[in-house]
Design brief:
By secondary structure, the chain is α+β, with helices and mostly antiparallel strands. The protein has 2 domains: 142 residues, no CATH class; 130 residues, no CATH class. It has 10 helices and 16 strands. Strands 2-3-4-1-5 form a 5-stranded antiparallel β-sheet, with helices on one face. It has a 5-stranded mixed β-sheet with strand order 12-11-9-8-15. Strands 7-10-14-13 form a 4-stranded mixed β-sheet. The two termini are 17 Å apart.
Length: 299
């Protein structure tokens, strides 16, 4: 089940399918072997969506009536698709690109899901597209929460994780090799219905931590006459209570610890008691099971 947008240009405007395809290839992702689908997936955020190039069905009266009979607009053949039953940050990322795509190429969309004028292509904004997708996305997810075995994580907090992840590579590039910008995972017990977020911090190196629930600590320390490697979990709250004075607020709600403070953190880092083992918190979950809808909420 997907949210689809049909892309149009004003009649008389010279814009070929090859030019549109070139824009998607240069600014989004290369197409498939047939040159008809641009499937995009952001490795940092996990967000995915696609554009398709569909053949006109001008011998089909129903197709012509729905998609090919506008006096002022011509169908480009390109269709954008974003699945429902996804965390809402999928829409936050996808529709930002759609808005830019429409603006740069002077395109319009026919949006069958819109509560506004659905009989003519429109120049829609990020806000209107996001609203048209997010409302039924949450409603459908709530209605089918148990049936599809979805896992809940709060909207605002998941958006914070997305925002950090979306800018993670930029932050890493600016800070350089002296710092590590940690990523974040969504995790849950195998039979759990509520997710948590997890990041890692290794050997108290200078880093930027995302605004997560838990931190996996990787460390080595001396025990008697040998050096041992340890991995365990502490809550983000516990970590900040223990050494938050050594961190500073950073971009996208991250926390940064600079080299001098990372050195000072050594004793606390190596002696901090672990609160959990990873097996107690679960494992990474697929984002197609993550939702901001709450079980039992009104659809």
């Amino acid at each position: 089940m997907s949210f689809d947008l049909y892309l149009y240009k004003q009649k008389g405007r010279e814009l070929s399918q090859e030019e549109i395809a070139g824009y998607l290839t240069e600014n989004l992702t290369p197409p498939n072997d047939e040159g008809t689908q641009w499937w995009f997936e952001n490795e940092e955020t996990g967000v995915y969506y696609s554009f398709m190039l569909e053949e006109a069905q001008e011998d089909d009266p129903e197709w012509v009536k729905m998609y090919g009979s506008f006096a002022d607009f011509g169908n480009t053949g390109f269709v954008f698709s974003l699945n429902f039953v996804r965390p809402n940050f999928f829409g936050m990322e996808a529709f930002r690109f759609v808005e830019r795509f429409m603006r740069d190429l002077d395109l319009y969309v026919l949006n069958p899901q819109s509560g506004l004028d659905t009989e003519n292509p429109r120049r829609e904004t990020f806000e209107s597209l996001y609203d048209d997708w997010s409302r039924p996305n949450l409603s459908f997810s709530t209605a089918h929460f148990d049936e599809i075995q979805l896992i809940h994580y709060p909207l605002e907090r998941s958006n914070d994780i997305w925002d950090f992840s979306f800018h993670r590579s930029e932050m890493q590039a600016r800070l350089g090799d002296d710092y590590f910008v940690s990523g974040a995972l969504f995790i849950a017990p195998e039979d759990g219905r509520k997710a948590a977020t997890l990041t890692t911090w290794t050997q108290h190196i200078p880093c930027v931590l995302p605004p997560v629930d838990y931190v996996a600590i990787n460390r080595t320390r001396k025990k008697l006459f040998r050096t041992v490697k340890e991995t365990g979990i502490v809550s983000y709250e516990t970590l900040m209570s223990s050494m938050g004075r050594l961190f500073e607020n950073y971009e996208n709600k991250g926390k940064i610890i600079h080299p001098d403070n990372a050195e000072r953190a050594g004793d606390v880092f190596t002696s901090l008691p672990f609160e959990y083992e990873l097996s107690q918190l679960g494992k990474q979950i697929d984002l197609d099971r993550l939702t901001n809808a709450e079980p039992g909420a009104e659809a």
